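User: Run a structure prediction on this.
Assistant: Running it now.
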Amino acid sequence: MERVATAITHCFMRLVNGRPGSFESLFAGEPRINTPLHGEIRGRRAFAGFIDEQRRLLSEEKARAELFAITATGERIVAEFLLTLHRGGTPVVIPIAVAADRTADAVSMIRVYYSSWPLRGRHRIRPPIIVPAADLVEPAIVRAYTAALKRGDTEAVLTLFEEDGYAREPSGAGFRHEGVEGLRAFYSEILADGGISLTHCTATFDGTRCAVEYTCDRWGTEALPPQAGMAVYELSGNGRLAAARIYDDISPPGERG
């Protein structure tokens, strides 16, 4: 793993596991981070306060983190983690994705993606963070998946996956749907009301995984306030989807009042 990716991973792991490193040293200029529950935090004083608060909360929850995957290009690094919190003696495992924009050997901004539903019992609207881009480098199968999702075409989505492929919801590590029938049940449910419209803002493709930051403004028949999210699509050796891992905080149609 190259130096910047290693530094980001180590800082996050040390923070969660109670041995904080120097997050501020990652940044080329003033620290800048955006999270689902805090929005944008900018500047050294605000950033230091944020890190101190997170350190305290994570310690209270007896948190532990496991690195899941790294997707890195010259422009951006995306690290996926599984964060385990202990609440009332019960472990809660939350998938988290951290996207870091690069400036040479440093970072200019960090964006964190996860669902707040396991923490709060409800979702939170997260406004767009990045302006959509039209010239993204992403594999054709990711574009085909996005188009099938927008049409609400479950069978078209299934043809893009390997037979043993899986999709993981943002709600937790246990919300994983594997194999043809597992995927059919999942996509039939989420597309029952119609398609999901995602507008891509960034794409980080290393040849194996493509991490896409997006905004979602429609799910089924209902228009939504535009909301930020991320998905990581893992490709098999055959160029099909081995996995689709979703990181957002968007309420499904049945949960919205």
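The helical segments are 3-16, 44-60, 117-120, 140-151, 154-159, 179-190.
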